[in-house]
Amino acid sequence: MKFFIFLSLLLSSKVYTSESESLQVVTEEWLPYNYTNVEGQLVGRSTDKVRAVLSDAGIKYKISSYPWLRSMHLAKTQANTMIYSIYRTPERENLFQWVCPLMGPVKEYLFALKTRDDIKLNSLEDAKKIRDFYS
Contacts for 11-16 with beta carbons within 8 Å, 24 or more apart? Predict the structure, then answer.
């Protein structure tokens, strides 16, 4: 199954921001797509695209980077919250309004130390199970 990185809006509720409100935008540290640089600014390929789209739309926003589980929790429970750099999976399909792809498919690679005897890959299906466990 091919995965894409998507810009996503929370659930089926419409995001509404008045002039006094701003959109809460959350993500995680995931180089080179979204990461905090040495100056403490959130940057990256996906972040740049999100900033451009929201600025062009005239939407006030604040982007914050949190550990992935916290970002997902905020996106699921807080109104006017957008999460980006998220894989679109069947389990997540109905949780979000999927707005637009940020970029094409990302190649996935598996690496393991030779000394790890707990990882045995004898087929592509074995590799998919490992990938799905960590995604």
Answer: 11/76, 11/95, 11/96, 11/97, 12/97, 13/79, 15/80, 15/82, 16/80
